């Protein structure tokens, strides 16, 4: 899972982007993907709206915003997107990759990853680390990814 957050570039820019592109590498199978997420007016509205944390006693806490996007990526290039802030996750979308490339953004190919000067986790080493840790490293089937385990409530965009 990858999180995207940060401060504005330039103090004069007060607008959210229309789209976010993520260029990423699946190290399990050495595939290179481009994921695009278009921020809808509804999502932009949620991100810009000033809220308040709710304290454990139910009273109003400090001001907060929903400003972090989290992307969960699978080796087949699919991704799911959540918005985080003010103590709540909001599930936004499931995305297909917009493109699969033959190399990463630095021009490194899958073969170069496998042979690189620094040890890159090969699928065999990743599997062995999983066996040693007692966990499966076989990619989770997409139909099982819909389950989210969080101590926080996960809401749907349609519920907002």
Automatic annotation (TrEMBL):
Pfam families: DUF2931 (PF11153). InterPro entries: DUF2931. Keywords: Plasmid. Residues 101-132 are annotated as: Disordered. This is DUF2931 family protein. It comes from Salinivibrio proteolyticus.
